[in-house]
TrEMBL record:
One of its GO terms (cellular component) is nucleoplasm. It comes from the Eukaryota. This is Uncharacterized protein. InterPro entries: Nicolin-1.
Length: 187
């Protein structure tokens, strides 16, 4: 994982959709704005006891990819009711299609009558990308190294003693100094 980084997947999150009057199945729909491989789902719980996650497959059917994932130890108490969770994709079952992110539904379960309001907050989805390799432009030949050193000297001369103007003598001294460099010093 040293050469990788997490990147946020742009998503659209619905409000809670209730399939009737409580108690009834309630879910949050997450729609991907680009089709990317989901590696992690991050969210903050707000009094939800457990969740089930479904994914729409290529045939347009909803399949369960995570069942009864517990968010609280005891649904009637608030001890751990507002914890943060990261669900990695390796928690999902064989129905999960990681590279097909059209829509997910997170079903919220709360059997306790103590909590009228329950939801998930701050939902984010992440993918893992390989870090771009930054190539350092190193000169390969002695001539390229000499050219680089010359450029450094010219920059030094233009910035010499707080003045933008450099006299002819200063320029000549700089060039003479550069021409005295030996190739072995540049390696």
């Amino acid at each position: 994982m040293e050469n990788s980084l997490c990147d946020t997947i742009p998503i659209i999150i619905s409000n809670i959709i209730k399939e009737g009057t409580l108690p009834c199945p309630s879910y949050i729909s997450i729609t991907g704005q680009r089709n990317e491989k989901i590696e992690y789902i991050l969210f903050q719980n707000y009094y939800v006891s457990s969740i089930n996650i479904q994914q729409i497959n290529r045939e347009g059917r909803w399949v369960t990819i995570l069942s009864d994932f517990r968010l609280t130890n005891y649904p009637h108490f608030e001890n751990d009711a507002e914890n943060w969770y990261i669900i990695p994709s390796n928690f999902f079952n064989e129905n999960f299609i990681p590279t097909y992110f059209k829509e997910l539904r997170i079903y919220l379960n709360q059997p306790s009558p103590n909590w009228r309001d329950f939801t998930l907050r701050n939902i984010q989805c992440f993918t893992v990308r390989e870090k771009p390799v930054i190539k350092k432009n190193e000169p390969t030949s002695a001539f390229c190294k000499l050219k680089e050193k010359l450029q450094e000297k010219i920059e030094t001369l233009t910035n010499a003693s707080g003045s933008d103007l450099v006299s002819y003598e200063e320029t000549m001294n700089g060039i003479v100094e550069v021409t005295r460099l030996e190739v072995s010093q540049l390696q």
